[in-house]
Amino acid sequence: MSRSAAWIVFLKECRESLRDRRILINALLIGPLLGPLMFVIVLRLTVARQIEQAARPLPVAVAGAAEAPNLISALEQQGLQLLAAPADLAGAVRSQQLDLALRIPAGYADAWRAGRPAQVELFYDSSRQGVVAEVQRLEGMLQAYSQRNAALRLMARGLSPTLAAPILVAPRDQATPQGRGALMFAMLPYFLVFTALIGGMWLAIDSTAGERERGSLEPLLINPVPRDRILLGKVLATALFGSASLTLGLLAFMIAGRFLPGDQIGLSFNLGPAVVGATLPLMLPLVLLIAVTEILVTAFAKSAREAQAHLALVQILPAITSVVLSFAPIKAALWMYVVPLLSQQLIILRLLRGEPIAALAVTLSVVFTLAAVLAVFFAARRSYAAERLAISS
Amino acid sequence: MIVVEDLRKSFGATRAVDGVSFSARDGQITALLGANGAGKTTTLRMLYTLMRPDSGRILVDGIDVQHDPLAVRRVLGVLPDARGLYRRLTARENIEYYGALQGLAPARARARIDELIQMLSMQDIAGRRTEGFSQGERLKTALARALIHEPRNVLLDEPTNGLDVMSTRSLREFLRRLRAEGQCVLFSTHIMQEVAALCDQVVIIARGRVVAEGSPDALRERAGEASLEEAFMKLIGARALGELS
Questions:
Q1: What CA–CA distance (Å, rounded) separates A20 from A26?
Q2: Which of residues 212-231 of A touch B (CB under 8 A)?
């Protein structure tokens, strides 16, 4: 009899939740859609900014432009936008009126004609955000002009321009298009975890803290059923809603992937049915872990509101590993596949990059995540056995 | 049949129940009478296995509560102080849930629910979701789900709390009916009329102890008072003066 008690509780929690608009909206709408939506918006914004920066004219205040008309017109061809220069260039940069200023000193033309190095001065404040990229762009333009003229001068003297370039650096970027895309996708595993969390959250709150708050927990526990069966039923119901949310979320990501401006910047995203199909079973042990953690955390809250506050803390944890992974991409070591959450994030990232996955990594991830599920379940069982759990007043 | 022997339970330094002994027989209605905070609810919670006694023994139909709490729960029907329902389930679904948890086969549960709906005159509310139920409707539903497995022992914690006159009357009627069927009915209360109207046996509790036990008539006689209320005040007052406000 007690074997099917978990099933009875599971069915009842599902049935009740399917009638609850708030639970449904969270599990089937907000959970699955919030992640992909935020993701596409963030990605579009960053991509759009990168494209914009590359093509945008670079406004630079130039003092003494008349001294070097050839230089200025060469820079203008590369995207420089000439601004009138104030009298005090350094002061204007310091007071942040200007981002960047160029001064061509009076001796420039003479030095140029004499074949001596002609000096130009760049004014900027490197502590200001975004300025360094502009400085590099302007330096690049000046370099290009300088090299072209160096080559012309050598040729005019009957020498080969290659003399002035003893070393030739040829960049060979090994990032595949998927690789570059996946770096931006490093946050995606977090959104998946988030989706599963949101999906089961309200059911967990309602079936633990909510049940206490409404005074239905005490009579429930007087039924001739071991408490861990009741607990199991609630965990499974939470996990079902979490995985429903996750499945819808993955589909939403698949569709959202088509609206990403991937080809504009030469990125491609491997988020096809194959990757989605592999991600789902990989995530299921984690969904269970999330569900049992949600039940554990909400079990002792006195009210739904308090439970919600506790769960907000739980939501921060997966964000931390994701942020670390996306800003400081670490080399995956074997021990990392032992850590629940981290292992799923690493494997999903590899899937997105189109890289092969070692069977050992998947095995470790599944086994250790399930072990964590058991550990948390036993902790929850202990707290469910406590006398004060049932007493609502 | 419920037998309680020298039951004790403390919360920190507070002795909530301090050596309670009594018995409640089959085919009788027994009241635990006492002021708020006298230890009635704690005693009942130990009876229905939600709290473990520090010491003492409870036998329900001969089963020791501490040895086999699950078996005790099968022969107990309990209406605790907390009687929350599931708002998004109908009254019938609420009762069905408990039937399933009690291990009843679906067909038997259905027949029993029909019977209870009849007995408690719940025909017009059985198919409605319990959200927005009146106190009386809530009580009927909670009572029905507590009795779904035809328990031989029925425990009720302050069952008439918050009920209007009509509901209180039909509840009394219902408890008499259970008595007539030979069940052991034990309820806690602080309301004198209830005891006078219903009980065969009264156990008066004050400060976690039994101060008197007997039929309402015997208690009146013992206190030498004509009304039960006066008898109660006298019996309690002798032991714990000024405890009642």
A1: 10
A2: 214-226
Q: Which of A40-44, A326-330, B232-236 has the lowest mean pLDDT?
A: A326-330
Instruction: State whether A246 and A346 are in the same domain.
Output: yes
pTM flag (> 0.90): no
CA distance B3 to A385: 26
Selected for mutation to probe chain B from A222, A234, A384, A393 (highest B CB count within 10 Å) is A222
> pLDDT digit string (tens) for A246-264?
999 999 888 877 776 655 5
Mutate one of B83, B101, B139 to test the A interface: name it (highest A CB count within 10 A).
B101
CB contact under 8 A, A222 and B80: yes
The minimum CA-CA distance between B218 and chain A, rounded to whole Å, is: 34
Task: Out of A164, A192, A207, pick the residue that ends a domain.
Answer: A164
Do residues A110 and A256 both lie within one domain? no
Give the confidence band of B238 by pLDDT, cuts at 50, 70, 90.
low
Q: Where are the domains of chain B?
A: 2-82+151-239
Contact A223 B102 (CB under 8 A): yes
In which band, very low, low, confident or very high, does the pLDDT at A56 lie, cut at 50, 70 and 90?
confident
Q: Does B22 touch chain A (CB under 8 A)?
A: no
Question: What ipTM score was computed for the predicted complex, to two decimals?
Answer: 0.92
**Cβ distance of B101 and A20 shorter than 8 Å:** no
Residue in the block written with tokens 């004499």: A114
Question: Per the CB < 8 Å rule, is A215 touching B93?
Answer: no
Query: Of A102, A134, A164, which one is at a domain's C-terminal end?
Result: A164
pLDDT of residue B114: 96
Judge: B73–A217 Cβ closer than 8 Å, yes or no.
Answer: no
Q: Judge residue A166's burial from the number of C-beta atoms within 10 Å of its C-beta, 0-12 exposed, 13-18 middle, 19 or more buried.
A: exposed
Structural domain includes residue A169: no
Q: Which two tokens stand for residue A62?
A: 């130039």
- Which residues, including other chains, have CB under 8 Å from residue B61's CB and lie 6 or more apart? B1, B75, B152, B153
Residue A78 has pLDDT above 90, yes or no: no
Whether A372 is in a domain gets the answer yes
Judging contacts by C-beta atoms under 8 Å, the chain A residues touching residue B76 are 222
Question: Confidence class of residue A181 from pLDDT cuts 50, 70 and 90?
Answer: low
Same domain, A204 and A84: no
B14 C-beta neighbours (distance < 10 Å), count: 11
Please judge whether B51 and A387 are an interchain contact, meaning their C-beta atoms are less than 8 angstroms apart: yes
pLDDT value at residue A258: 73
CATH number at residue A159: 3.40.190
Number of domains within chain A: 2
- Domain membership of residue A107 as a residue range: 57-164
User: In chain B, positions 33-62, which contact chain A (CB-CB < 8 Å)?
Assistant: 45, 48-52
Query: Inter-chain contact A218–B50, Cβ cutoff 8 Å?
Result: yes
Verify whether the Cβ–Cβ distance B145 to A219 is below 8 Å: yes
Backbone angles phi, psi at A364, to 5 degrees: -60, -45
**Residue A202 shares a structural domain with residue A320:** yes
Query: Do A130 and A73 belong to one domain?
Result: yes
Range from A193-207, A255-269, A288-302 carrying the lowest mean pLDDT: A255-269
- Give per-residue pLDDT as tens, B63-72: 999 999 999 9
Number of H helices, E strands in chain B: 9, 10
Q: Is domain B2-82+151-239 given the CATH code 3.20.20.70 in the classification?
A: no
Torsion-angle region of B19 (φ positive above 0: left; ψ -120 to 50: alpha; else: beta) = left
